Amino acid sequence: MTPTLVRHHRYADSSAPVDTGTRARDWAEIQERMLAPLYEAVYARLEVGAGTRMLSLGCGSGLALLIAASRGARVTGVDTDRDRLALARERLAAEPGQDTGRAGLRARLAESVPAAAPDGEAPYNLLTAFQPIGCTAGDSEGLAPALASAMPLAVRGATVVLAGWGPPERCATAPVLRVAARLTESARAPRSGSGWRSALRDDLEEVAARAGLKPDGSGRVSCPFGYADVDSAVRGLLSTGLFDTAIRATDRTQVEKEVAEAMHPHLRPDGTVWMPNVFRYLVCVT
After folding, report:
1. Of the ranges 15-19, 182-186, 209-213, 222-226, which is most confident?
2. How far apart are CA 100 and CA 86, in angstroms?
3. How many CB atoms are closer than 10 A to CB 25?
4. Which run of H or E residues covers position 181?
5. Do residues 121 and 74 touch, judged by C-beta distance below 8 A?
6. C-alpha triplet 44, 50, 55: angle, nearest 5°
7. Taking the CA atoms of the chain, what radius of gyration do you get in angstroms?
8. CA dihedral 51, 56, 61, 67 (to 10 degrees)
9. Per-residue pLDDT tens digits for 67-99
10. Is 22 within 8 Å of 87 (Cβ atoms)?
């Protein structure tokens, strides 16, 4: 599940407005797989398997769920992005509110944290929040409340996993992400609290403390961002939502152009783009 290069995507006009469905598919087809090494490292460390009942906050289009389910876990995914959630449903062949799936995969998907664990099932023993924090100001603000709403559904002593960007000097993508802050500031847009910032050493620990969690170990994982070409790289990175403020402050065409230029140091002779990154995860207990 670790390949990071994707097929080349051709579009009639890459600067044309992109609807949310297209962006969600860019995320699912191009960008989401970049975090597969993180998911796999966490699952291996925690020995995720048939006895695991996992609730994933911010599950995106379901890749982390799919990997866990393939290891035998029973999974529930929550995401407020309906388009990404629809793609997760396609991946897991699950209908809303049902436990169905191909090849024995069992999954539940919802737009908000469920009020209770599935009928007839034990509470969750693993909560995950794999959407990395630590690259934009305020990107962790909603995480502690989300964890607070999810923890009553978990057993006492359940494992909770948080994820974040590693040190900027270990993340080749960091200078590319700075494009968003620079364009926003140059346009003198109203401050929205979503500008780029360097990851801090204790970002994850601070979230854990606010949520009342006890840290129980951590790790770092290499997650290189690899793309078949610059066009795929631009579409993948814009699908993250990290450039939305810059697009509103300027326009999408300018953001695409400057993001592509920022990736030139990582363009290889064969036309592919390769950006080594390190992500960090924190294991906690409730």
Report:
1. 222-226
2. 15
3. 20
4. helix 174-186
5. yes
6. 75
7. 19
8. -30
9. 999 999 999 999 999 999 999 999 997 544 444
10. no
* Angstrom distance (rounded) from CA 269 to CA 8: 16
Encode pLDDT of 119-135 as tens digits.
667 899 999 999 999 87
DSSP code at position 191: P
Strands 53-57 and 74-78 come out as parallel
**Residue count of the chain:** 286
Tokens for 131? 């959407």
With 0.85 as the threshold, say if the pTM is over it: yes
Closest alpha carbon to 162 in 213, 225, 237: 213
Pair of tokens at residue 250: 């300027």
Tokens found for residue 108: 């539940």
Q: Hey, is 185 helix, strand or coil?
A: helix
Distance CA 81, CA 27 (A): 12
Residues 6+ apart with CB under 8 A from 265: none
Give the residue ranges of DSSP H helices in the chain: 20-26, 36-46, 63-70, 82-92, 143-150, 174-186, 203-210, 230-238, 244-249, 252-262
For residues 204 and 133, the answer to whether their CB atoms sit within 8 Å is: yes
Of the candidates 37, 27, 26, 43, the one whose C-alpha atom is nearest the C-alpha of residue 2 is 37
Q: How many CB atoms lie within 10 A of CB 13?
A: 7
Tokens of 36: 């597969």
Residues 236 and 173: their CA atoms lie apart, in Å, by 12
Tokens encoding 113: 């944290």
List of residues 6+ apart from 38 with CB closer than 8 A: 130, 163, 221, 223, 279, 281
In the structure encoding, which two tokens stand for residue 147, read together?
A: 């964890």
Helix pair angle (252-262, 230-238), 10° resolution: 120
